[in-house]
Amino acid sequence: MEWAAHASDWPMAESSQFILCKPHKWHVQIAGDGPLILLIHGAGGATQSWRHLFPLLAKTSRVVAIDLPGQGFTKSGAQGRCGLVEMAQDITRLCAAQGWKPVAVVGHSAGAAVALQMNLSAKIIGINAALDTFKGVAGVMFPLFAKTLAMLPMVADVFIATSTRGQGVQRLIDSTGSKLSATDIRFYRRLCRDRNHVNGTLQMMAQWDLSPLINRLGSIKADTLLIATANDQMVPADVSRRAAEALPNGIVLQTADFGHLAHEEAPDVISKIVTKFIG
To answer: In the β-sheet with 224-229, what is the strand arrangement from edge to edge?
Structure first.
């Protein structure tokens, strides 16, 4: 997306900066003072997904939210670096270049996997963490299907045409089990209309491989809290429970309500959980 066309009302626009740290030109949002908390959104999202949680955390901490490569307003400089390992390496490099030393990394969905892959000396909080692979035939076919889609030049255009027609985006959000406001959905609709963002998300899906991370969860010593919500229609709570059992210092906290986008539905609840865990 072009920043100039959206800056006037994009969430937390006053906190936005653009940082060139090769190979990407990163869009980041920074606010607050105190211990640093890094926020990493999930696949298909952007910094706008933190629009309610970001200001709450910034009351007591320095908060840095980033757009993943190719998504939101971050311009990818290397299309082949949208996989889990590569994203984690590039974000770690960005943190080092900026002198950011997070005391905690909060990741939503796939962003939680990125946080664990980075393996920083920081606490990890995963919100409905996507830490499971597809089983059986789906485990083989889905990655191949995603790679095929990512290589087809017209797929992004087809997705934009179909998803943004009528109630397409509303249905996508509803399928997560979350209930968002019309304003929240409006920002997702903008993302779904942007060809670069859709392509960036497809590249992430095509290059994603969780198996090595899952196999080494037992070696990740970071204090980790996995928040699982009962109404999540995308990532079952069992995924967080199994991952927490595998992590030496992992715990799981399940809430009785909320869907996959819990940090957007219930920012007050999530903020209190995060702040308490960070201590």
So the answer is: 16-21, 24-31, 62-66, 36-40, 104-108, 123-127, 224-229, 250-255
| 87-96 residue pLDDT tens | 999 999 999 9
The span from the CA of 168 to the CA of 86, in Å, is: 31
Q: What is the pLDDT of residues 47-75, one digit of tens each?
A: 999 999 999 999 999 999 999 999 999 99
- Give the pLDDT band (50/70/90) at residue 256: confident
Could you tell me whether strands 16-21 and 24-31 are parallel, antiparallel, or unpaired per DSSP bridges? antiparallel
Strands (E), 172-275: 224-229, 250-255
Q: At 278, list the tokens.
A: 């960070």
Tell me how many degrees the CA angle 239-244-250 measures, rounded to the nearest 5: 150
Total of domains in the chain? 1
d(CA 38, CA 238): 26
Return all residues near 7 (Cβ < 8 A) that are at least 6 apart: 13, 16
The CATH number covering residue 85 comes to: 3.40.50.1820
Task: Supply the range of the domain harboring residue 72.
Answer: 3-278
